[in-house]
Amino acid sequence: MSAAAAPGPSSEGVVQQAREAVRVLREELGGLYLPYDLAGTAGALRCRDRVRDQLGDYVLPRLASADAPLLAVVGGSTGAGKSTLVSSLVRQPVAASSPIRPTTRRPMLLHAPDDAAWFEGGRVLGSLARLRVDPHAPATPPGGHTPRELELRSCEALPEGLALVDAPDVDSLVEDNRDLAATLLSAADLWVFVTTASRYADAVPWEHLREAALRQITAAVVLDRVPPGAGEQVETDLRHRLEAAGLGGAPVFTLPETARDAEGLLPGEVVLPVRRWLEALAADEQIRRNLARRTVVGALGHALGECDRLCAHLEVQERQHDALVHVAVSRHREALERVERVTADGSMLRGEVLARWQDLVGTGDLLRSLEGRVGRLRDRVSALLRGRPVSADRVEEAVESSLTALLIAESRRAALEVEQDWLRQDCACRQRVRALEQLEAEEDLALRAAEVVRQWQGDVLALVRSEGSDRRVTARLVSLGVNGVGVALMIVVLAHTGGLTGAEVGIAGGTALVAQRLLEAVFGDQALRTMTVRARADLARRCEELLGAQEQVFTGTLAPPSPGSALLHGSVETCRASAALLEQA
Questions:
Q1: CA pair distance 585, 583, nearest whole angstrom
Q2: Dist CA 179 CA 327 (whole Å)
Q3: Which of 182, 186, 358, 570 reaches 20 to 30 Å from 542, CA-CA?
């Protein structure tokens, strides 16, 4: 006997799973952040808003309530007669008709009295504010415009299970109206597209009709104001176009050019075929449920296709972010490398630093004594240092001034290079401006650079004191002075001799050699090596911190795109799997 197959999830469980997946995806779309003005970013943001609204306005409510009334959105081109058709279907002038364009600025939702509860609150079309209007109030006149607001009106002429929405023009001159029309069409169970014999081939309505085919939505086309004798020819061409768009099964209702009555309504018999078609769909609960399920699966599939494009754009944004970060990091890394090179190859031992050091130690005399005993060298240097106690401070000041100038120059050079590199990429304009606003003023940078150098010099003197704690070393240190020995260590660090001897000490010439011989006489060769490495590492660390703080100003303005393409793609795939199960169920 074969083992029984494991039972699959229940239909209710599949729906619940799909709802949770859609909810998570919608939240991520709500937080979708695209910081860089790349080609296609504006379109991606509009797509994000449209998909998020569709998931919240239609998919989630429909998954939660398959038995809710069908939402039939009446849309179409400017001046096609949408508002007239809606009023004529319910035999009451509820929607204004006017030569003013656009006429429909605030969409209107009509529902049967007993269906009112379905449309209160934000369950359906939750992205729109609500305005409840008395059932017998006159039609709202064209003119005043309140963005993203939905007029609700109870209508006894509508059967239970069916709601009609009079939508703005899909080709309106007002962008807000076009966006609102797209939002309403995305939230529809049914589309009733209204066009005319003279405008049925316009491009914009066909974009929406092709989207209806992709969404597997049930749609009908009302061909309005057809002149006598032209109906058959126009309808034949229209059906060919519908077939090519994937809507070959969509019914076409041809309304002849007809005079309206005193209330501006079309004769009842003219709109009766449209009314009967809508009522037939709404009357059968099972048909209504199947139609809603089919539409919601199609809507979800279409939304996920749009999300795939959003994921692709998010990846482009992430690559752009990484490239901009790389520019900021690499330019400051190059600046740090230049600082390390200049402070290591003896370049600093020029100008004021060299003059003050020579003044301190009398380089010319000492160089002629280098072949003598180390003790005699120590005695000569000691005598010089005792005779000129102020000179060590002057060397220290010269080193501070030179290092500070170097750090300021390299900081500003790195900032300028990042600015120029970002300037070549228009997408980072806002980030570049924000970074430049946050950069330190020249005087603030000078103060901070000087403080970095002074702190390093203080650490060098502390290192000298620490190494001089040995009794034998202490006597030598006292005889020479901590400051004098400290500036000698600074000279060795800037010459990058690293305590080496012989021919390897040639980078900074005799100037550095004097300092090295002095330190060897005081501390010994191995201790000198250790002190030089520590002092140099400390200088490098402090320079890195200074440049790193400026680098952070630039990178800190580069907020990464969110929620991250991998995360968004994972949510899309989870929704896609749920949609497949939903379709099977």
A1: 5
A2: 38
A3: 358
